[in-house]
Amino acid sequence: YIDLPMQHIADGVLKKMNRHGGSAxxxxxxxxLRKEIPDIVIRTTFIVGFxxxxxxxxxxxxxxxNEQRFEHVGVFTYSxxxxxxxxxxxxxxxxxxxxxxxxxxxxxLVINEEYNEKKLGKVVRVLCEGFDPISxxxxxxxxxxxxxxxxxxxxxxxxxxxxxSFVDVKIEEVIEYDLYGTAESI
Length: 186
What we know:
186 residues, alpha/beta, five-stranded mixed beta barrel, 4 helices, 8 strands
């Protein structure tokens, strides 16, 4: 699991963000990671609506996300902050930012569901984090999930599973970003 905050892929936007390396380097690093560590899980974050992000740059970002099929993606809308170089740049309309956010997150939801569906029927080692009385299920995360960021794995099992313990969970269902299953062992 690696968290690699890319922010964007369009060279013009990356330059305005003062990000060094550009899209070629980002693509090279991702390709090398995938080649050298075949089971790697990559989490990244992107910013939409940064000053200078035109339709072409946004389309390039969407194509990149759909091409790379990242396991976990966070998307943020650009927020103007005083005392930054971008503060005085021409700003993008808030509704455009929100629309772009929605588009990219919809794309990622499809990618994430496909990623999670590959886990159906498999047994995953889960770190139990607690019990949710509303769903009447335990919940936790695997080594491929960051705490409080990525989806959770909910599971049923015998009473008394303690937070902090590892449990083998057979995955039986996918609902958006979360997985559901049954504890096989403690």
